[in-house]
């Protein structure tokens, strides 16, 4: 008891120190910003009159307010092009899982885990910390469980962002510029733009009007990769969609179509997932959400998506909850990303343990 | 009788000429709202002629809905308002109040659509109330009270059109995709 209270006291003191440090940093930043803004104001006022400055600011805000929805509308063009059949590269549903398996002597895996990455994804190879997470997960899994990784969740065709139709010219130039200037602002700008692009794709996925096309196309992409891995519906294998952050939304969206295409019921595991839950979930057998109790992004999902609110009791998500198909696992102290994120050395084992905890229940059909 | 009809038509014509800016803008707002759901028509693989016709028709129906809502406003203003508000002046002014509606086409943007739509509807109503207060010197509370029934009517009419037309198109698209997915079974 004494040791426990001593530890608590220590933690309390550390928290106090961190908060104090944070307050100091914020205070200093504010002070510097004030000094700089005074200088900046002086420079701007020397060049422009206050009226001109106000006008410039007004136009800048208006341009930003217009730019955001226009970008969203433009990003729909590739969805439409896919639906019209103008883009080649994805198979017909009838062609999937139809040819005989290349290695019929191998026993078919009992479970396929399909990993859907978060909004940082720009190419098939995951960032090193995600690859390390997946490698460790694969090491811990039983031999009859196969992981499908390197799936392009945020592009239209089964290619990396730099080769995707529509914006390839832009992304190629940006990534080339990033290679030329590996330090400085360009990599930061590239990361911000990639994430903004992928956030729009998450937005499309959670929009009832455009989501169906997006999910159908992603289901075909996953089907294609499963076909390559040797998945056959007749073998009775189970499918698990494992989604991180925005990948959680993609997993929820694609589940119904993928269940139709692969002719098997599905399971979803999301960690740090941001999802609307406003998708057909009838064919999803179980949903497991692994959440950090310090994750503001996942918590924001509860507010941003009204369908998950208890105020909407008949939403699809609330019905899945009422059916008892949703399991929630909380990890104390885990954040959304960074040093306290699910891919950090500290929390990676806990997230993997949580996945391994859920997996036997899925296999047993609980 | 004929003279009466001619007089009435002359008056309506003169009144429409006075209010042309307002009426023109109402039509443009209708078209912009109709454009925000063009994706549903495109994705349901209608021919370009069918799409153009549907957009125009929806735009006209929406403009009519706004005109009906404005008619309710005018009726209330004429019968209850504490100061005289000429119908053509009101209709001319209402065009400017509807300007935010010209951006309604941006509601096509994914996910932020609802937020944008609510914002634009709010701005339109705010503009109408401000117009009544500043241009016709009605007190704020009276302006709000008299303009709200017409506004609510416009909301109901647009919601009805949405339910009848666009929502059906999105549902059709969704079921088409379900069938495509189910073909593998």
Map the helices and strands.
The complex is a heterodimer of chains A (366) and B (185).
Chain A (H helix, E strand, L loop, with lengths): L1 H46 L2 H25 L1 H8 L27 E6 L11 H13 L4 E4 L19 H13 L4 H22 L4 H19 L8 E7 L1 H17 L3 E6 L12 E9 L3 H9 L11 H7 L3 E6 L16 H16 L3
Parallel strand pairs in A: 1-2, 1-3, 3-4, 4-5, 5-6
Chain B lengths: L1 H17 L1 H16 L2 H6 L4 H33 L6 H11 L15 H22 L5 H43 L3
The biggest sheet of chain A, with number of strands, parallel, antiparallel or mixed sense and barrel status, is:
6 strands, parallel
Distance between the termini of chain A: 38 Å
Quickly give the structural class of chain B. Answer: mainly alpha
Give the fraction of residues assigned to helices of chain A. Answer: 40-55%
First-to-last CA distance of chain B: 72 Å
- Let me know the average pLDDT of chain B: 82
CATH architecture of the domain at 110-363 in chain A: 3-Layer(aba) Sandwich
Q: How many strands of chain B?
A: 0
The total count of helices of chain B amounts to 7
């Amino acid at each position: 008891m004494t040791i426990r209270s001593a530890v608590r006291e220590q933690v309390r003191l550390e928290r106090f120190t961190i908060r104090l440090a944070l307050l100091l940093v914020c205070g200093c930043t504010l002070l510097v910003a004030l000094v700089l803004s005074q200088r900046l104001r002086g420079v701007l006022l020397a060049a422009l009159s206050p009226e001109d400055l106000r006008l410039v600011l007004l136009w800048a805000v208006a341009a930003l307010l217009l730019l955001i929805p226009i970008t969203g509308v433009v990003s729909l063009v590739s969805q439409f092009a896919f639906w019209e059949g103008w883009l080649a590269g994805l198979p017909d549903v009838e062609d999937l899982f139809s040819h005989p398996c290349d290695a019929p002597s191998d026993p078919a895996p009992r479970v396929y885990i399909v990993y859907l990455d978060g909004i940082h994804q720009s190419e098939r190879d995951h960032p090193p910390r995600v690859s390390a997470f997946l490698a460790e997960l694969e090491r811990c899994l039983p031999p009859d469980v196969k992981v499908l990784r390197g799936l392009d969740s945020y592009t239209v065709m089964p290619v990396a962002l730099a080769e995707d139709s529509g914006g390839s010219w832009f992304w190629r130039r940006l990534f080339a510029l990033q290679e030329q200037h590996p330090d400085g602002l360009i990599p930061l700008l590239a990361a911000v733009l990639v994430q903004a692009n992928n956030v729009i794709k998450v937005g499309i996925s959670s929009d009832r009007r455009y989501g169906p096309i997006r999910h159908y196309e992603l289901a075909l992409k996953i089907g294609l990769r499963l076909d390559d891995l040797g998945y056959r519906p007749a073998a009775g294998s189970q499918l698990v969609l494992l989604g991180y952050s925005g990948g959680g939304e993609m997993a929820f969206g694609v589940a119904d179509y993928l269940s139709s295409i692969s002719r098997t019921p599905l399971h979803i595991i999301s960690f740090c997932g941001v999802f609307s839950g406003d998708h057909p979930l009838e064919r999803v057998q179980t949903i497991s959400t692994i959440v950090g109790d310090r994750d503001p992004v996942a918590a924001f999902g509860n507010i941003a998506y009204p369908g998950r609110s208890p105020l909407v009791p008949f939403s699809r998500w609330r019905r899945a909850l009422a059916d008892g198909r949703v399991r929630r696992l909380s990890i104390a102290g885990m954040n959304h990303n960074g040093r306290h994120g699910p891919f950090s050395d500290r929390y990676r084992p806990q997230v993997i343990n949580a996945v391994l905890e859920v997996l036997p229940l899925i296999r047993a059909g609980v | 009788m004929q003279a009466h009809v001619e007089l009435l038509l002359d008056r309506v014509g003169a009144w429409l000429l006075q209010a042309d800016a307002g009426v023109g803008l109402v039509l443009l707002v209708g078209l912009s709202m109709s454009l925000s759901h063009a994706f549903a028509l495109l994705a349901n693989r209608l021919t370009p002629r069918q799409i153009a016709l549907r957009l125009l028709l929806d735009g006209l129906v929406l403009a009519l809905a706004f005109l009906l809502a404005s008619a309710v406003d005018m009726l209330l203003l004429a019968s209850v308002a504490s100061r005289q508000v000429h119908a053509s002046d009101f209709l001319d002014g209402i065009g400017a109040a509807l300007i935010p509606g010209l951006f309604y086409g941006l509601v096509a943007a994914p996910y932020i659509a609802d937020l944008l739509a609510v914002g634009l509807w709010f701005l339109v109503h705010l503009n109408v109330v401000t117009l009544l207060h500043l241009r016709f010197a009605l007190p704020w509370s009276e302006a709000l009270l008299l303009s709200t029934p017409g506004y609510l009517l416009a909301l109901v009419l647009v919601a009805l059109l949405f339910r009848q037309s666009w929502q059906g198109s999105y549902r059709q698209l969704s079921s088409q995709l379900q069938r495509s997915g189910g073909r593998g079974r």
